């Protein structure tokens, strides 16, 4: 891990973003990089993030946008999977400015939203990039796991087509995709 190489003492803990085991106001900075956006109940997750942030502390998030590449990938999933349970919002709603402002309006101030691009570079072609996502990216793992072999083949075909269509890599046998995300920075009042 890079933290070890850099000599940083970081404690990693796995937990529930809707029920964090931390005291109120315990942290100066709370960061979610494409994490909180996948909770099924945004109002609870937002309240928890605010609760564990001290007054005057910052909350920083990165959330994929519905219009960006990962949003397009979720549209492919949607075409192949049954709809989610009623009342469960799309994770992509965390990439919509109006939705984020509404979710962060209680107890948070100075909310700044900036659209940014993450260049996703892979040392293999689009078809292998899909397999990389299938092995290491939770939403892709779950999508494939929910389908029978024939439906998996159709999903794979559509994902390879998406990766190929958005590949801007100049080197053959590699993949580079520009994925838009929404940077969110807010201060707890």
SSE topology sketch:
Elements: H1 2-5, E1 27-33, H2 42-52, E2 53-64, H3 69-80, H4 97-103, E3 108-122, H5 126-136, H6 138-145, H7 149-166, E4 175-188
Parallel strand pairs: 1-2
Antiparallel strand pairs: 2-4, 3-4
Care to describe what's here?
The chain is α+β, with helices and mostly antiparallel strands. It has a single domain (26-188), classed as Rossmann fold, CATH 3.40.50.150. Helices cover 38% and strands 25% of the residues. It is built from seven helices and four strands. It has helices at residues 2-5, 42-52, 69-80, 97-103, 126-136, 138-145, 149-166; strands at 27-33, 53-64, 108-122, 175-188. Strands 1-2-4-3 form a four-stranded mixed beta sheet. Strand 1 (27-33), helix 2 (42-52) and strand 2 form a beta-alpha-beta unit. Helix 5 (126-136) packs across helix 6. The protein is globular, with a radius of gyration of 18 Å. The mean pLDDT is 95.
